[in-house]
Design a protein that fits this description.
80% of the residues lie in helices and 0% in strands. The mean pLDDT is 88. It has 198 residues and is mainly α. Residues 1-59 form the HTH tetR-type domain. Pfam families: TetR_N.
């Protein structure tokens, strides 16, 4: 029952907003009593905390799937972007923005985990791209990684609408790639940008 509550609540939080969904709403949607929810969660914050952990795990499972398909480094970044679009396209408001605004402590905890994971993933992508001749061999991997994830996280936490965040993330990805790509990498980038506009 606990997993079902987390799953339903998380779905509602993402679609309707972390702030606006109440424990009554969740109980009503699940046709259970509020008392049943409180049996597992002492308050809404605990429920949101567990929900964000589930989102975190789901995102990383999907990211691992993309990586396992062995795209080249530039394609991999575009496939990640596509995966995020599919995951969040039904939401009007950016979940990260909402969480930061209404539940800053939970947001901070989640971001600490996310930033470390993303730093690792972005670094691996740059190493892969250098090996494939798509990124310049003299790229400062630490700085390039930091610039990119700072851009991406800043967009997500400061942009209200999900579609605006998605558009800006696309520009950040192009900016990041152009900054570190070889001529071969630029050709690959242009090919991927063209696929988006089709």
């Amino acid at each position: 029952m606990k997993e079902k509550i987390v799953s339903k609540a998380t779905d509602m939080f993402l679609k309707l907003g972390f702030k606006s969904v109440t424990m009554d709403d969740i109980a009503g949607e699940m046709c259970i009593s509020k008392k049943t929810i409180y049996k597992y969660f002492c308050n809404k914050e605990k429920l949101i905390e567990e929900g964000t952990e589930v989102i975190h795990q789901n995102i990383h499972k999907l990211m691992d799937e993309v990586i396992s398909k062995n795209y080249n480094a530039i394609e991999e970044n575009f496939e990640m972007r596509k995966m995020f679009k599919e995951m969040f396209q039904s939401f009007d408001h950016s979940p990260a923005y909402q969480l930061k605004k209404h539940y800053p402590d939970i947001y901070e905890k989640m971001m600490t985990n996310e930033m470390e994971d993303c730093r690792q993933m972005f670094s691996q992508n740059i190493v892969k791209g250098i090996e494939q001749g798509l990124y310049r061999p003299n790229v400062d991997i630490v700085s390039a990684t930091q610039f990119y994830y700072t851009l991406v996280f800043s967009i997500n936490e400061n942009t209200v609408l999900e579609r605006d965040a998605y558009e800006l993330e696309g520009k950040a990805l192009e900016y990041h790639t152009r900054a570190i790509a070889t001529e071969k990498g630029i050709i690959e980038l242009e090919k991927n940008l063209l696929n988006i506009t089709k």
